[in-house]
Amino acid sequence: MSENKDPQVAEDGNSVESVKAEKAVKYVYDFTEGNKDLKDLLGGKGANLAEMTNLGLPVPPGFTITTEACKVYLESGEEPAALRDEVSAHLEALEQKMGKKLGQPDNPLLVSVRSGAKFSMPGMMDTVLNIGLSDKSVQGLAKQAGDERFAWDSYRRLIQMFGKTVLGVDGDLFEDALDKAKQAKKVTDDTELDAADLKKLVTRFKKIVKSETGRDFPQDPREQMDLAIRAVFDSWNGERARLYRRQERIPHDLGTAVNICSMVFGNLGPDSGTGVAFTRDPASGQQGVYGDYLQNAQGEDVVAGIRNTVPLAELERIDKKSYDQLMQIMETLENHYKDLCDIEFTIERGRLWMLQTRVGKRTAAAAFRIATQLVDQGLIDEAEALKRVTGDQLAQLMFPRFDEQAKVEQVARGIAASPGAAVGKAVFDSYTAVKWSRSGEKVILIRRETNPDDLDGMIAAEGILTSRGGKTSHAAVVARGMGKTCVCGAEELKVDTKRRRMTIPDGRVVEEGDLISIDGSTGKVYLGEVPVVPSPVVEYFEGRMHPGADDADELVEAVHRMMAFADRKRRLRVRANADNAEDALRARRFGAQGIGLCRTEHMFLGDRRELVERLILADTEAEREEALKQLLPLQKQDFVELFEAMDGLPVTIRLLDPPLHEFLPDITELSVRVALAEARQEPHENELRLLQAVHRLHEQNPMLGLRGVRLGLVVPGLFTMQVRAIAEAAAERRAAKGDPRAEIMIPLVGTVQELEIVREEADKVIAEVEAATGEQLKLPIGTMIELPRAALTAGQIAEAAEFFSFGTNDLTQTVWGFSRDDVEASFFTAYLEKGIFGVSPFETIDKDGVGSLVKSAVKAGRATRPDLKLGVCGEHGGDPESVHFFHEVGLDYVSCSPFRIPVARLEAGRAAVEAEGSDHR
């Protein structure tokens, strides 16, 4: 029998080797051990608490449980075996540092247990304050603080937060009990409840816990802490957290860290308080004193927006010493992080404590202003400034705004929390917001204050309006992160969510379904629909507003500078998808460097449609020749105008690529006409002949049928007519001393033989035009790569093609087997909700599938023809994330709709900067 060489087994059943391996992993870090660059491991909150500690700022002592521990828990359902001992060791060290033990009856150490992922997810995961309080330690806390009310207030907060967050009790049960306590005392604010009232409330809260969970509220402080840690881990996969990550495109596999921090108290009386501060205005980017402060409160009161705060500037009057210290710390942090910082702080009996800092979320306008300000201050360079703004933010700035000249009825004014002009029907809960928006209605979500459970309604709404809260409330922070219009703290409005109505100051009532308008830039609320006007940023791109002029908008100046930075940095050129001279001229004003896609089928809509129909249905060569003869001058004139508009820039013209059904009569309608004519015994020979032809050409799936190069090969003379029109138009422009730079693109090629046949015919036509006009024409001929086979045989196709343009719309359809017109309305919503898609593959390129075909086609094409020009002309050409992919794989240009050109330019610059950074690492 062979010797047993199984690894030695430990008492718990694990191998000794595995236990040793796990023990080698460090799961807990003291705040003194980390730094701001460890966000992957310590999460954003933990890394920044460590950074502030190392800077010598007043941070309450504590420690962080790593994201690696969370990942183990989420994968196995159990914490790592070594975690409890590590937590115990760090807790003991914290107790020694503080001179008291967790939950100690006569002098209790209390801690907060707070989530903290790598990327900020405000309010989406769980936090529990005042861990360590119990029936015994609450008495000790009262004596220690010399304030019985404070102790019982802290205890009721613990039971309320712990009950909802850790034990899963419906939070409304606690809120209702609190409201009844205030009603019984005939007060409106919880600060007006005294110690006896709060003691009774604690008893009521404990009964709610027992009734709802079948167990008593835990009195063991270590059990409280362990259960809270597990609850924070679990909250990573909570419904609202997953929804937020999908919305913000945050990966689902990062996990969250957990921060255990010794408590400091803002609810110890009027010389205590809590607040949130920004080193610059997160809405506008202006420098100054921005934030909210709330006396005699804990941090959750500010963030939740339950009590209305005072502006941070008021702190100077309330507590000048703390105010001056806070201003100094804010300057230190902004200079250290070289960015807008979002800060949470608490003042405990006149002593300032820093509870958190992070690079703050900001509006699109603030992002551009701050980036340029920091460059001017010498804190960052132009390359870093480009990293601080995004194409999505630029797109937000191009949205319309309310017309200041319009007749409006303003009914309230709140805090301008997140800019934009939003109009919609009033709704008072998230469920209705989602339901109505899915039916095509535009809605404004109105709440007293939002909470994380309102996230799906906030996403669905055009804008958010609350009667409570400030710029740092949940509604404001989340709305800014999503680029959603938001007005907070409109105290004049009385919001009744149960009766689904809102009362305005003059007593009138806004019912659910009534139209309202909110201006997130001014905080104004209007009845009815307010008309909108173009954004000043669009006016700048259109050439109607000039940077440096006396009336120039400061935001326009910032956008102008950032676009100049991007244009200097980018390698990708940006072209436009444009089908006529008007669109081409607008694209050129927006910075287009040519046309990447002119869809000639769009030139045959309206009155011209009949000519194409006649061409396709022609029975004889004479009929076909007549139709082509009439089409030629129309096409030529279109191209002359287009070449004139884009003089000196490339114009890629795609030959006719209509799904055939778009140019044929509707088969049902035609059948009815023939049947009626027969029934009435009226002449119908032409209709009958047409019906027979339509039946002959009818396709079950026109998008995969007789279109593109196939149509050009089957209908003699069609593509040669178009090539002749292009060549003659180019010759005419050259004769007029113009500089036409036409490129001819053959659509839907699947094999090189198709392209070779069309190219041979095109070359003959071009030579004939050159001979007839005496003009030398350089007309490159290429193809659209929009079929998987074309991508897979790109090396062969490049033998006959001088350029490729990736048609990623059709390539996505054919790779996935999706019909875009059908699937987006049928099951895409479910796929997004279930997390199968993080984003629609028609919006952002599917890098693993479609993207891999693009990569292989680029490699194979350039192996055959090193000077092969490569571009993309699908909708992905204007998508920020996709632009970075196209830069990475080595395309020469992207092409997109005129409105998206500035976005593509900016992202092309950002892609170049990011690539430089990767090269230097």
TrEMBL record:
The keyword Ubl conjugation does not apply. PROSITE patterns: PEP_ENZYMES_PHOS_SITE (PS00370). Belongs to the PEP-utilizing enzyme family. It catalyses: pyruvate + phosphate + ATP = phosphoenolpyruvate + AMP + diphosphate + H(+). Keywords: ATP-binding, Kinase, Magnesium, Metal-binding, Nucleotide-binding, Pyruvate, Transferase. PANTHER family: PHOSPHOENOLPYRUVATE DIKINASE-RELATED, PYRUVATE, PHOSPHATE DIKINASE 1, CHLOROPLASTIC. This is Pyruvate, phosphate dikinase. Residues 83-308, 315-368 form the Pyruvate phosphate dikinase AMP/ATP-binding domain. Its EC number is 2.7.9.1. It comes from Streptomyces thermoalcalitolerans. Residues 441-523 form the PEP-utilising enzyme mobile domain. SUPFAM superfamilies: Glutathione synthetase ATP-binding domain-like, Phosphoenolpyruvate/pyruvate domain, Phosphohistidine domain. The lineage of its organism: Bacteria, Bacillati, Actinomycetota, Actinomycetes, Kitasatosporales. Its cofactor is Mg(2+). Residues 557-909 form the PEP-utilising enzyme C-terminal domain. It is an enzyme of class 2 (transferase). The keyword Transcription regulation does not apply. InterPro entries: ATP_grasp_subdomain_1 (IPR013815), PEP-util_enz_mobile_dom (IPR008279), PEP_util_AS (IPR018274), PEP_util_C (IPR000121), Phosphohistidine_dom_sf (IPR036637), PPDK_AMP/ATP-bd (IPR002192), Pyruvate_phosphate_dikinase (IPR010121), Pyrv/PenolPyrv_kinase-like_dom (IPR015813).
